[in-house]
Amino acid sequence: MPIRSLSVKKIRNIDAVSFEPSERINIIYGANGSGKTTLLESVHFLGLTRSFRTNQFRYLVTSSERESLVFSKIDAAGNGQLKPLGVSRGLDGDVAIRFNGNSIDLSELASLVPLQLINTDTFELLEGSPGTRRQFIDWGVFHSEPVFIQLWRAFKRVLQQRNSLLKCGKIDPVLRQVWDQEFIQYAEQLTSMREHYIEQLKPDFEEILLKLVGDLSITLKFSAGWDQKRPLDELLAENLSRDLKQGFTSIGPQRADLKVKSEGISAAERLSRGQKKLVVSALKLAQGALFHRLSNRACVYLIDDLPSELDKHHSRLFCEFLEQTNNQCFITCVDPESLSRFWEPDTAVAYFNIEAGQLVQTH
Ligand SMILES: Nc1ncnc2c1ncn2[C@@H]1O[C@H](COP(=O)(O)OP(=O)(O)OP(=O)(O)O)[C@@H](O)[C@H]1O
């Protein structure tokens, strides 16, 4: 799904930038504070109408401006046909997403522009809360199971209803049974999709990890959010008095997790910083590889400060892997020399220097 042209207006220190990215590798380089990450944020904004650095849009829009806009031409189907896609968002809360002359909604946009972001927050996949890992799994399920989004919304509605009943401190047994039946039905469907996704992801992850790091033993284990050896209805009944006290449902898919271990120990506790970066990158790149295998479409990779935490050898392996894929990559770094010698001469690599929000293609 390459982005063939990109215009960014009023995002942080970028007032107006237009350029034609390479279909393959784009290196964005510049000094601290020049706007490299802002450019990645702009592509993220195009795919999801929001930043990956802040939840508050007012920090993303250029100070004293009222609206941000990103306009692009994308090869959505990967067949060479370019179609216009534009996303704008105002301080008044208005969001407009237009694709090929039509308004589309956010979930249509997300499936149109599949993005994989690798930045310092990606460490959260190992070090952060289970919610981060659930988001990771659900990105994959969303992009591989068309019914997932409806199912997930339906499950969330049931969970909210059940929790509001629990908060009352007393719950009618008949009413509880009705909600529990729905809860169980959605929980089992969601869980089997998540399990299936992780099983499919494992071989891609192992293969990519081997290429990026070599012989590092990492295991992935999906945890459903309850003890799957026991029926969920029994466990819900058993946990009822605790749930009533707490005012929320303590077991279910809302507690799912992905345990990442090295030699049987939590990878977050055991691995070095560089090893962690390679493991979380392998997870993200495996999602991209699996997405391609299942849909025959390629993700756009946004990789902020690729060389940070990595020695030359591992930076090279990372670049060699990216080169072998068919993904469009936007990679930032401070010094372009740190990545310039890693590419084969026939790879389409474009270099862009950014200075105070102004972008110039250098080679
Ligand atoms: N809302 C805003 N309006 C205008 N400028 C902003 C806004 N938010 C941030 N900035 C400025 O935009 C610039 C770009 O920051 P960005 O994080 O993109 O830099 P960077 O090139 O990635 O830097 P680094 O190498 O330090 O990570 C910074 O100078 C920042 O102060």
Give a verbal description of the structure.
With 363 residues, this protein is an alpha/beta fold. The chain has a domain at 125-271: Up-down Bundle (Glutathione S-transferase Yfyf (Class Pi), Chain A, domain 2). Helix content is 45%, strand content 23%. It is globular and about 70 Å long. Keywords: ATP-binding, Cytoplasm, DNA damage, DNA repair, DNA replication, DNA-binding, Nucleotide-binding, SOS response. The RecF protein is involved in DNA metabolism; it is required for DNA replication and normal SOS inducibility. RecF binds preferentially to single-stranded, linear DNA. It also seems to bind ATP. Residues 3-341 form the RecF/RecN/SMC N-terminal domain.
Q: List the strand order in the largest sheet.
A: 2-1-4-5-6-7
Helix-strand topology string: EEEHHEEEEHEHHHHEHHEEHHEHEHEE
Given helix and strand content, the structural type is: alpha/beta
Uncertain stretches:
none
CATH superfamily descriptor of the domain at 125-271: RecF/RecN/SMC, N-terminal domain
Count every beta strand, where a strand is a DSSP E run of 2 or more residues.
Answer: 15
Mind describing the biggest β-sheet? 6 strands, antiparallel
CATH T-level fold name of the domain at 125-271: Glutathione S-transferase Yfyf (Class Pi), Chain A, domain 2
Strand content: 15-25%
Bound molecules: adenosine-5'-triphosphate
CA gyration radius, whole angstroms: 22 Å
Helical content class: 40-55%
Number of helices: 13
Shape: globular
| CATH class category label of the domain at 125-271 | Mainly Alpha
Report the mean per-residue pLDDT as an integer.
Answer: 96
Alpha carbon gap, first and last residue: 23 Å
